[in-house]
Design a protein that fits this description.
Length: about 325
């Protein structure tokens, strides 16, 4: 082993703080090399599971594994690129919402997160009505017992907060690293004698390298995991934009029906949030979307009402 490698190794052992280590190395010897930084920052303690992406999907996965007795004693790390956000349930509803079906409710119930959602807010959907602008035909979805829920409309932030609150209860098993991004993934080498090379290696934005038996990619539509592993994907452009908004209803109603109408330019959906508010998701052409967002409130409301009743062939 060369003198410089030995030098690095002794610094690793005695100077855990990376910045001071680099500064001292520079001051004393006037050099650093990528190799030193890499070996300095490598974590040699492999994780059983690493989940890349702490959105709704990654955090739900972390809860699912964290609360699963079969994962007792396993180390799970959740990487989230964004900083940890402080959650406050604002009076005004957020306009990013999800309609979740009963399978999702049952998943959340399996580790106690649905109660957290109920303690915040969500709105039951008992019927979905889908129709189109060019005919009188329509489809209705409901449970055999009409009073049973079909789905729930929940703000994305509420879902995430419920999951994050539950995750704190298993913090000894699930470590969450905020502002930490996977930047490079190296898959295991098929036939290797090296224990570390038989694991997935994940380089983080802070220079650290994690090793794991199982990497789960939940890092969104531009997934680094998908790209690094060359997973094939298919995508196509609908040439549409989505306009989202929170609508105030003219008068309170039971508001438990999800409406969706197909127009030639795309579907408009109105999803119940409360007795007096609904969420709008309107997929339309880019030009029309630009027009919609630049309208004053009254013109916008007229546009929404027309889109629900106008006959368009
Ligand atoms: C208008 C609209 C309405 C929708 N309505 C519904 C609905 O009603 N029901 C429904 O089920 N779905 C709905 N969807 C889809 C749903 O929102 C998405 O499928 C869902 O948000 C995907 O969640 P995710 O956790 O996989 O990804 P994301 O929400 O994109 O989260 C990815 C996370 O990974 C982090 N990240 C990214 N890169 C890295 C990295 N390299 N390292 C570490 N972290 C990283 C990001 O910071 C982010 O927090 C809707 C989508 C839209 C746009």
């Amino acid at each position: 082993m060369s003198a410089s490698k030995l030098l690095t190794y002794s610094f690793v052992k005695t100077l855990p703080d990376r910045t001071s280590w680099l500064r001292k190395l520079r001051n004393r010897h006037g050099f650093t090399t990528r190799m030193f930084v890499r070996s300095m920052c490598s974590s040699v303690e492999p994780r059983h599971v690493v989940i890349s992406g702490g959105g709704m999907v990654g955090t739900a996965m972390a809860c699912s594994l964290g609360f699963n007795p079969m994962f007792e004693g396993k180390s799970i790390t959740l990487l989230e690129a964004a900083p940890k956000k402080k959650f406050e349930l604002s009076e005004m509803y957020k306009n990013r919402v999800s309609t979740v079906n009963l399978s999702t409710v049952s998943l959340f119930n399996s580790f106690g997160a649905w109660d957290k959602v109920l303690q915040m807010r969500c709105q039951p959907v008992k019927r979905m009505q889908i129709w189109e602008s060019c005919s009188d035909s329509f489809l209705t979805f409901n449970q055999p017992d009409l009073s049973d829920e079909l789905a729930f409309v929940v703000e994305n932030d509420v879902l995430l907060e419920a999951l994050r609150t539950k995750l704190e209860e298993v913090s000894e098993r699930v470590e969450v690293l905020y502002e930490t991004k996977a930047t490079k993934i190296e898959l295991p080498e098929p036939s290797t004698d090296s224990a570390l090379k038989s694991l997935v290696s994940i380089t983080l934005n802070n220079g650290k390298v994690l090793h794991t038996n199982l990497l789960i990619g939940a890092d969104g539509s531009n997934s680094v995991v998908r790209k690094s592993c060359n997973f094939p994907s298919v995508k196509w452009d609908y040439n549409q934009a989505g306009v989202v908004a929170t609508l105030s209803l003219s008068e309170p109603t039971e508001n438990n029906v999800a409406w969706q109408r197909f127009l030639p330019s795309g579907p408009i959906a109105i999803l119940p949030l409360s007795k007096k508010e609904s969420s709008l998701v309107w997929s339309t052409s880019h030009e029309h979307a630009k027009e919609l967002v630049s309208m004053d409130a009254d013109t916008f409301v007229d546009a929404v009402n027309n889109a629900l009743v106008e006959v368009v062939l």
